[in-house]
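Sample entry (420 residues):
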Amino acid sequence: MNRVAGLRWWIVALISLGTILNYLARNSLGVLAPQLKLSLHFSTAQYSYVVAAFQLAYTVMQPVCGFVIDRIGLRLGVALFALIWAGANMLHAFAGGWPSLAFFRGLLGVGESAAVPSGIKAVSEWFPAKERSVAVGYFNTGTSLGALIAPPVVVFLALRYDWRAAFVVTGALGAAWAALWYIAYRPPTEHPLLGEAERGYILDGQPPAPATRTPIAKILRQRAFWAIAIPRFLSEPAWQTFSFWIPLYLTTERGMNLKGIALFAWLPFLAADIGGLAGGYLSPLLIARFGVRLIPSRIAGIVLGAVLMIGPGLVGLAAGPGWAIGLFCVGGFAHQMISTLINTLSADVFPASTVATANGLVGMAGWTGGLIFSLIVGALADKIGYSPLFACLAVFDLIGAAVLIALIRGADAGPAKAPA
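Predicted structure, serialized as tokens:
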């Protein structure tokens, strides 16, 4: 059988494609929110309940999905959860009001919560430690690429057909990817298309696997876990706000219509893609050029992203919608730089046998922060406006960077080597 050169990068491409479709389905609601509020007759506060249903299910299920995937493996586990999210997204077409929409949204959260833990586990299996931040950077682009293409794709489907068709089509794409994943994925120890030289390169660059999996209670007692989980709790509200609230903000405070949103609301997610890649390459650059150790190289990028988050915090001062979108672009770039490196830290700190569970717990912390903040936005946006709420996002990330620096000490065991 012919071997495929650089197969690990094809695996990242497959993961990224699934993440793109995952986030395309996820962000369909935010794009359609102005239309759904009119069609299904619900308020801004009730919209926040719909968002919260997804966030609550996603929050609770991330460690559960991570645990399941650590036990049954990536091939079967990811395919099953992808079919759940695809079916749930298509069921959105049958919503008759905000309660039924919230129910389907919660079911979507159950399936989609496997995306990041499984992606991080795949990277930990397929890449030596020195390449992981780059791999996560590419994998993480799927989160923003899906959000980037959502406005034009979803608006096109909604205008060409109706909003129900938008949910059906984006869900069907997820089902097709689930089949592709099940056919194509194997771990590196078993993949028939992986050459022996590349297999050796991958396995030799990974730390020895422990004889047993780390219990959840032991993970929660580790200082390194909280060094990652607390900053994730503080940073995730920004991405949730960008994903679910920017279209409503642009409509209510900047006077944009659905076509205007389709034309411009994707730009912050393009910037997010660039930020994710920049964060991935920054770490090995610091290692190669300046001899920075592995963990501090991740921290440096997170601190830089936190400083850049001041940009969207000032969106209330923007003179017009163009300037507002520009500041959201700075925020998208900054957040995905932070997200890439925080997720990479999970693979650095935890072994491959436990990393999906650990990353799921970290994700649970993050989505708890996102859920709380979305409910706050729903309760206060119509009363005080969005500007003070966006300002909070900058403060959260700066605090998160300070917490990371304070708690991560002693966790650095990484080599000061650049990717090959």
